Amino acid sequence: MLSKIFLCLFLFASVIFSQSKFYIQPSFFFTYGDYSNKTLSDQYSFFLSSSPNQIDYLVAGFERINLKNNSWKYEQNNYSFGLHYWISDLKLKLKADLKIIKGKYSDTFNSYSLVDNGTLFSPEVLAGVYPFYYGTGFAYFLNNGSNKTNAMQLYIRTDYYPHYKFLITILPSANIISNKIIYFSCQTSLTYYAFYELSLNTSFSLGNRKFYYHPDLMVLFNQIETQTGNYSFRLDYNFYKRFVLSMIYQKSKFSNYDIDYFVIGIKSPFTF
To answer: What letters, b where the CB count within 10 A reaches 16 and e where it falls short, cover 150-167?
Structure first.
């Protein structure tokens, strides 16, 4: 299945990105998670963005997540793909994300393992001109593993630049779990571009949600518990030539526990 996905993305990108110059940006992130129920997690993420013009992008990523407790452990591999394409004449941006999840849970009480085999698809359309952009999208998540679940997320978005150094993003959403339970939440973020080398971001959510997909971060919160709150702080600093260091703190509150995430990452663009 993965080989077919890679082939389709390659053929599609070859048509769109048929330019002489090519821009790529590899990025690597390490995440440490400290759970209030004594669980610990570590995550290694690698993403590669490519573009012929720094406007249209093809993104591919891999994430490895390990969770450990005294009596159980969970291992997960994520494969992410994204396409961002601007139709300049119509002032439209088309975006499509695909995420494939392969996870395995084991404990000391059972001789067998539980598995996660999930797939998420998320298209989005964005319109507008500076300083105001608006759009809508949805995400559909299907888990065919041991815990069979389907979830639909509908959201609208607003991106507003009150000043060229500030960006406000508002993402209200509704999450429908197995066609029965509906959750409502709103994700809000503020980015401050202090100067060329430095940007600061803060983000928070209001309301409850489950199996929430963050379309800007390509992150799926696939915990089975309900998320009751989330906030984060992020710093991006261009410390040497075109190398950018990212440091993030995130607090996620769930119905049964809280998680403190500490993230460090590095990225650098190259042009060929």
So the answer is: ebbbebebebeeeeeeeb
Could you tell me which CATH number the domain at 32-271 has?
2.40.160.40
Amino acid identity, position 149: T
DSSP label at residue 269: -
Give me the average pLDDT of each 10-residue run along the chain (272 residues).
50 52 91 96 96 88 94 94 91 95 87 84 96 96 87 97 97 92 96 95 96 95 93 96 96 96 95 82
Structure tokens of 196?
């060329």
Residue 122 zone, left/alpha/beta (φ > 0; ψ -120 to 50; rest): beta
Among 99, 161, 90, 105, smallest CA distance to 130 is for 161
Give the start-to-end residue ranges of the domains of the chain. Answer: 32-271
Long-range Cβ contact pairs of 89-94 (< 8 A, separation 24 or more): 90/127, 91/127, 91/128, 91/129, 92/125, 92/126, 92/127, 93/125, 93/126, 93/127, 93/135, 94/123, 94/124, 94/125
Please name the residue that has the structure tokens 């001109």.
Answer: 129
How many CB atoms are closer than 10 A to CB 262?
A: 13
